[in-house]
Amino acid sequence: MKPSFAQLRRFLYAVVCSLALSSGAFAQDPGAAELLAAQQAVERADRADADQYAADTMAMARQQLEQAQRAAGDRRERKQVPVLALRAAADADLARALSEEAVAQAQLAQRRAEVQQLQQQLATGEGH
């Protein structure tokens, strides 16, 4: 059954209302959106095993995220939260990218070794 335009309109209205309410919460807390984005970036980097392939960059991202979280709890430092959180997110994204690159390079080396082995087998007539 296809949704009608009226049903779609109600859904869109609900989404707009939700966004309006959540943006009001972020407007009252400067840096909340950036802090959330930084937390998500660190989580993505964790899932990409960035600790293994980009440990220094990942440690820096975590440190900056902690600084941003501490600043969010201190009225005098709250204005620094967006900058600290953006730095944490950027470092976490870099760590994730470095990790993904390392994994891709390892996979490429493995495939090249497999191709070389197959070429040797073809050249020597093995594998029949």
Notes on the structure:
With 128 residues, the chain is mainly α. It has a domain at 30-100. 83% of the residues lie in helices and 0% in strands. The chain is rod-shaped, with a radius of gyration of 24 Å. Pfam families: DUF4398. This is DUF4398 domain-containing protein.
Give the distance, in angstroms, between the N- and C-terminal Cα atoms: 56 Å
Low-confidence runs (pLDDT<50, min 5 residues)? none
Name the shape in a single word.
rod-shaped
Beta fraction: under 5%
Protein name: DUF4398 domain-containing protein
Pfam families: DUF4398
Coiled coil: 58-121
Organism: Stenotrophomonas pictorum JCM 9942
Task: Write out key terms for the chains shown.
signal; mainly alpha; 128 residues; 5 helices; DUF4398 domain-containing protein
